[in-house]
Input
Amino acid sequence: MTTQKVEQRYGFDNTSAEGSHQLQHLAEVLDPHSIDVLSTTGVEPGMHCLDIGPGAGTITHWLADQVGTDGHVTAVDINPVLAGGPNIEVLKQDIRQATFEPESLDLIHARLVLMHLPERQQVLAKLTSWLRPGGAIVLSEWDCTYMDLVRHSPTYTVQQLHETFQTTMVDILTKRGMSATWAVEAHTAMLHCALADVTTVSDSRFYHGGTGICLLHHSNSHQLEPELLAAGMTHGQLTQWREALQDPRLILSSYLMHTTIGRRAAAN
Ligand SMILES: C[S@@+](CC[C@H](N)C(=O)[O-])C[C@H]1O[C@@H](n2cnc3c(N)ncnc32)[C@H](O)[C@@H]1O
Output
């Protein structure tokens, strides 16, 4: 693994026990959608792909299987925890400082990364310049403007705890540079980068307490506990919220994920 000095602004720690749980829950909730979209976009043997902020690395490894031994996947993460492989190179780098040859990549994938970077517009322009003519970029981001996500709550108190937790967490992450609106802006941003065939598809699923998105919220509530307490949530509220997240009577939608795909115009 190649290592570069990084300035860390991202708010979660992949190497902590909760960080590892968080990445596993993300993969479980989001991989079916990502694999559907990537399959439709077209991942062929021999391609060179870049996976930005791969987290658990499940999509990096899926891409590596598709491109085969003649292809190559580069995974860039400020805090990588995934294993490399014969056709996988893992770089410990900040994507904001990373450089690739112009027009050297067939596919760039980033899920839940650019929304955390204040420089997301400039990063998107840079990524575009790395795409070969005809190459595709696939960005998946959560729409944090849409928070009507409780499908069934065992009590009104739990419904209120959901609102308090979501509002406080989004506020904490926004102060660290996250954009709650980037998911709905990425489509236009790709058009501004002169990408062609820009398309956005959206995905959300329902989860009972003890599964999927509920386990992700549980993990996030632990990782962000000091900030949640500093922002006014109490130990009692966090305990009650975590109990509710394990209760199968609770049904939550995952955040709405918008995946935007754009292509560098093919050479004439
Ligand atoms: C929310 S996690 C998403 C992980 C994975 N893409 C997924 O959706 O399951 C964000 C990932 O991006 C990485 N990351 C955050 N800021 C980054 C940066 N500036 N450059 C590269 N990776 C970054 C984090 O370390 C983490 O692995």
